[in-house]
Amino acid sequence: MANVLNEEKKQQVLALGRLGWSLRRIQQTTRIRRETASAYLKAAGIAVRPPSGWGAASAKTGQRSDHRLRCGKSGRPGDR
Q1: Quick check: 42 and 15 in contact, CB under 8 A?
Q2: What is the per-residue DSSP string for 18-80?
Q3: Which of 29, 38, 40, 35 shows the shortest CA–CA distance to 5?
Q4: Cα–Cα distance, 39 to 44 (Å, whole number)
Q5: Residue 17 CB burial class (10 angstroms; 0-12, 13-18, ≥19)
């Protein structure tokens, strides 16, 4: 038999997912692997936040990330 979360931990994961927490944040708070949390959230029909893509340009707007806007073309401070 596979390991199963106790009901209290399961409800905690579901509640945090309903609040819109990321899987990494749920993992850090509950000490439950994000893959496990994702499986429970998907089984309950709760949408899982997609990765935010740190530093990547937005595909929809074509805008550069905030860091690149502050630092210049190359992303290094002082290089404008």
Answers
A1: no
A2: HTT--HHHHHHHH---HHHHHHHHHHTTPPPPPP--TTPPPTTT-PPPHHHHHH-SSSSTT--
A3: 40
A4: 9
A5: buried
Q: What is the pLDDT of residue 37?
A: 96
Residue 44 predicted with pLDDT over 70: yes
Task: Please tell me the pTM assigned to this model.
Answer: 0.61
Dist CA 76 CA 80 (whole Å): 8
Question: In degrees to the nearest 10, what's the CA dihedral of 28, 22, 37, 40?
Answer: 150
How far, in Å, are 27, 37, 50 from residue 14 at the CA level? 12, 8, 16
| 73: CB partners within 8 A, 6+ apart | 79, 80
DSSP 8: H
